């Protein structure tokens, strides 16, 4: 079959022995489509109208690179290809496992950092002393000074000073017309 890949409307009409009006009608109705350059692809003509008239049917020949799959040459090539694919996939798996190990190590590091993070300060109270450090040695009193008296607080918890919250009373909302007709208040 010696056919071009694209046809003008006139050439397609002559190939399929149809009038140009029929092809234009099919294009307008969406049955047949043209490319952006105005030509009609042969595959599109083949889809809509089938094989063209007067063209001999040519038997298709299988041109695949692998003709016979039972030859030892074929099996040797496929075995080599499969082995190379297996090696490639093993390398990819090793890289993925390495990335996973690094990511897990990073996650462990971040979790450790999060646990050692100082606690969030309370917005309504302040402390007058630093929070106790886990690795700090207990403070030794200087010689000649007396121990501070026990004021009822534990040494683990810092003294908290409450800060009163100021609440302002919000004036009642007024409507649009009440601004003009009611006294200001």
> How many distinct helices?
5
Structural class: mainly alpha
Radius of gyration: 44 Å
The total beta strand count reads 4
Q: Report mean pLDDT, rounded to a whole number.
A: 75
Unreliable spans: none
Write down the overall geometry: flat
Distance between the termini: 97 Å
Strand content: 5-15%
Helix content: 40-55%
Describe the main β-sheet briefly: 2 strands, antiparallel
- SSE order: EHHEHHEEH
Description:
This protein is mainly alpha-helical. Among the domains are: about 5-50, no CATH class; about 70-115. It has helices spanning about 10-15, 20-30, 40-50, 70-115, 180; strands at about 5, 40, 125, 160. It has a two-stranded antiparallel sheet. A two-stranded antiparallel ribbon has the order 3-4. It starts with 5 loop residues before the first strand and ends with a helix. About 5% of the residues are buried.
Describe, in short, the structure shown.
This protein has 185 residues and is mostly helical. Among the domains are: 6-49, no CATH class; 69-117.
Question: What features would you highlight for this structure?
Answer:
185 residues, 5 helices, mainly alpha, two-stranded antiparallel ribbon
List the helices and strands and how they pair.
Blueprint: E1 6-7, H1 9-16, H2 20-29, E2 40-41, H3 42-49, H4 72-115, E3 125-127, E4 160-162, H5 178-181
Antiparallel strand pairs: 1-2, 3-4
Helix pairs in contact: 1-2
